[in-house]
Amino acid sequence: MPHLAVNGPRPSWIHLILLLVVCVVSAAAQRSTSTPDNNTSTSSTLPVPRKVTTTEASAAGKGKECWLSADSSYRDQLSLLLNTRNAKLVEVTVNLPGHPPYQLRDSLPHVYRPNLWIRSTSRQGRSLLMLDETYDLKSLTTLAIGVEKLEVNLTDHPIRCLRKFEDREEETLRIVRSSFLRDFADPNQNTRGSLSPDEHICSKHVEDDGGYAHFVYRCCRFDQDGEIVCLDVIEDNWIKVLLTLIIIIKVLVVLYSPMFLPETLYRIKYVAAQYLYHLPGPAMTLKVVVSEDPDQYGPQAKHKCVRLEELKNMEVFKTMVASSNWQTEKIYEVKVKDVRLSVKARRLLSKFTVPVSIKSILYNNLIRCRIRKLEPLKDCCNSNILGRFNPGIKMIKWHHCMKWFAGLCLMVLISTPWILRIYGYFTFEDITRDRQVEAAERLGLEIKYPGSIVLYLSPVHGLFIFIYIIFIIDSLVYGVLSKAMKEKFKHVARDCLRDMRERSRIAVVAWMTKLLVLPFTVFGVLGFLLFVPYLILLAVVTLPVAAFYIFPTLNLSIRLLINLFIFLCPDKLMNKCRSWHGKFSSVRERFSMHDVTANESFIQKHSYTRGGVLLQLVVILMLVVILMVLISFWSVTLMLMEIVTFFVELLVYTFMGVIVNAGTILQYVTVLFLLFMYSKNTFSRVANLYQAYHGVIHRELLGLIKEEIDEVAKQEATDQENTAFIVQGESSSNTPKDVRPRIKIKENQPQWSTQGMLVFLDKYDTPYTPEKFFFETIDLNYFGCPGPIYTNVLAALWEFLKIVLFLLFIFIVVMAFGDAYQVSTTNQLLATVVGGFVPFLFRYIFVSDAGVGDIDTKSIQFITEFHRIINSYKQAWGVFDIVPVSYKEWDYKDDDVDAFDDTSPVDGNGNRSNFGPSNNVTGGGINGDPSDSISPLLDSTRNGQDGEFSRLEVGGDPGGLLSIRSSGMGGSTVISIDDSYPDVDIIVDVSTSKTRRFNALQSKGFEKGSTSMLDRTGHNPPIFKPSNPNIYV
How many domains are there within the chain? Predict the structure, then answer.
């Protein structure tokens, strides 16, 4: 028995990078909130003092020529912001009434925004100047706490004296700075203003950095000698590290963008797995006919007709019907003992998995529209959207409309991150970008690349418009593609993604390490002499290979290009490529390329390029699709890089704001944390309730077939196959007399409909049960069952709402009394935490926890109900392949339609058939003539394309198609349609436009079996050759 390896969640690179980002943000925030140093010239925030512009006395003397005064309310407003609101940064917007609107802009061209001046009151305030100008957006306004805005009207004295200094920028700048430092007081009063030694007046300047505009804040203050000292604000080292990490995240997103795609969409273990189902008892008999004209079997033939060229997988079955021994228009008996089922992983549940999480409930009920099965909504969802006023057009049900609406909502949900990114750009970043471009153009400079393509180009740039058009074309092309073409495209895309994901990167690193030490393995110590040239040669060979296998974006792109090359490459060039591949075999052996390229395969050209103009058009269409997929993939990668970077910056800035303003924000964060904890706990109790019950049901199911499972589980994992077992309940009155499966055809694919439960066991001995069975057992007529999911979810939601109301009450009380009695923020935080844990105490200490009790599985009621639901359980599974034991032509000459007895074999639809063994028909198989059978059969493990099978709603028998009768006189036969006699199980359609005959009279409902079933050419169909007209009587 193989050991089951339990793989826990592995930390990805994004988790490690984000953890490092959090550490850096914490260090940067703590540095900015540390105790300020009075000697700001040695501060890391303001490290470089500018030259002394002038002394206070000389400034006063020159200020008599021109100085500025503010409104009388300016000092009062400023005092209110600094003393009462404890502002750490005051943004002052100045206006100059009586002057042109752009007076300051024309006089101060090197100032980024001449009308905006900032008063910084602490080092924490100055640290905000190091950040991006849109820090309030990116921090979700957490960093904007303590940042106040003030607007003031200024008057120059003497009147309009500023116009004298329009051509002298430094003089104008000195006048504005000195006026701000004096709080716009009269210079004749010799006042120094209200600035403390750590307060500064700052403005943003534009400097020439090699032809590019460099924006930097310049902060000024009076020193002890009365001199105005200006300092440039430069980035802190921790901020530089943080920005470097963000750049690394961008690069990693580009290189690993395919890893964001859910692996459940393409990996084999999630898409579909093959399970071997061995039929108990004697071999099952299927009647199969290959027809070039399936229309002759009547309008009900569509229920049992499959198109051979559209049949997925089924390699053994297709080989059987395509063999030279198989003749068209003849019915064959096929003996079957083994069937390979194709089962999606989402339709199975392990012991530790239940679909009761909030995500599963929303996805299943809204996206997959399972809510339509609820009793109050069942009738409405299955009714027509026009109701009784339908004029006779095709009926469209409400649940179909809801599925389309859910798909549209899902597309909007997927697009929401990009919509938020565009909203942030046009709301904040676009304005800032325009200002920077305008300031740079005034000085004839260019703007540096800001680190974001959206910010550099804008979302309405031609590049992004091209991407939007590509997405629209993708949607239209995918909508008009045929189903077969979609399947081919999915097959190519899934193969590329699967090979990209399942290739071991550790094996690539091991291969490179092996080659790196090769000189020392061969030459010993002398390998040091050859190591440098060998290393250069090794880098040329290994680095491209390593990049291909280590970086998923390159891997997927190159795989798509290789498939595109296979489509376009002529046969002669393909042959040359194969010959070159053979010539380099020795080089591949030297470099042990087999260690990394083992089992590497690409799509073969002959699988897609066959003769015929139509097929060549199909190939051209596939080329267009692959090219569009490649372009779309890189477009999505570009947008994904912008989205991830944007949200990482939101996380970083918000976390920094929480740390910097912990006293104000932690109360809100604590309440949000308590809400998250209670919501997760409340709904987890529902999941745990069903998890415990599912464990009991799972254990009882395995107990019914313990011997069969143990017999298969004894094998090694390399020899053991995924296996399906039938389970029957014996302690119930509804035990079916016949549990033989039935063949159903839906969407041109065979479906294996079973009466009873199937339990699945993979080759690693992990048992699975159907998801549908879980939903049918949760509401058994037994007191220990948890009941329908929606009832428990609604009860949990009601309980959570009561907790929300209680927490809201606690928060309002703490905030109200805290402000009234001036309680410190620390004590308010403690009061909020203590009050928030009251529901926790009531739930786990004062009230006992309700859960699934000990279910008495030995109870007669439980056993009866449990076995009843097992026996009544029906479900259809996709068929991966049918493995026949033998086949022979059906001899109907001796059949008597009335000669039914209990010894008649059972056909594929579970009906008693009247045919039996015939002496004049040679049977195929082990003891029969090999010429009449598949002997030997192809290996049943041959793989085909991965198929996806839609769920079949098992209903009643659709009715029979054919009744084959013998006249008993001369062996003349006729095959007529008889609803009560379903003989043929599978009709394999191999017709073409020339061989298919459409009978218009039959489609109008004429009497079945009448002579009016002749085709329009006047010739009898091949299978209708009655010699005795009385056979129809």
Answer: 5
